[in-house]
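Subject: Sanity check before I submit

Could someone independently write out the structure tokens for this chain? I want to compare against mine line by line before I put it in a report. The sequence has 232 residues.
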Amino acid sequence: MPRANRFLSIRRDPFSDEVFARRGDQEAHSLLQRTGFVPVVRAHETYHRVPTNLAEHDEARLATEAVGRLRSAGYHVDCDGDFDTDHRPVHYLPLGASVAHIAERIREATTTDEVADALTDLTAAHDGVLAAVDKVLIALADFHEGLGDPADPHIARRLRYLADERLGVITSDLSHTRNALADRHAPHPGRSICTEQVPSNERERSAVCACPPPPRALPAPPPPPVAAAMRR
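---
Independent answer below. Compare away.
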């Protein structure tokens, strides 16, 4: 039986006539957004809706695609009959999964060189992840420049500010961190790799490796004394 957050519903609301997707975990929310749904964050829940001003057949097409994608990823989807489908599109790993793999490499790293190598994928000047994000922000700013609404020039200026100021600070700090680690050439003292080799001078006959025993946990301090109640 799937967990509760593996269940979703995609239905047309009988009162507003809008198509809503409800429940699901963060992966399901990402799949809905990739299908075209728009997240709506409320104090008590987060749900998703189809974009505004779509024709009814376009709403049904989008909802049907979402049902197929979610079921292909292992979700149980309760839906209107108009949205039901046996189509199961191939579920590819998104681009973000490749970036998240950098975090896994850092978590598993045992030396500063390994972390510096992982950070290079973020900070490389020409084709690093942060350089690519900068290009996306500038392209989006260029798009808004001529879009036509009164707010669009302001949005374009805001995007250029994010690229030049906010992203620039992050890129500079991470690049400095990467370069400092690249020069350090040091193992992480808490992440040494066990060779599973017993040295010849080991006195404990039951030893199976050369790793030192874990540090003994210090006993918890006693609770502070409770102050005596004031006498009347």
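---
OP: Matches mine. For the report I'm noting this point. The helical segments are 26-35, 56-72, 95-108, 112-123, 129-145, 152-184.
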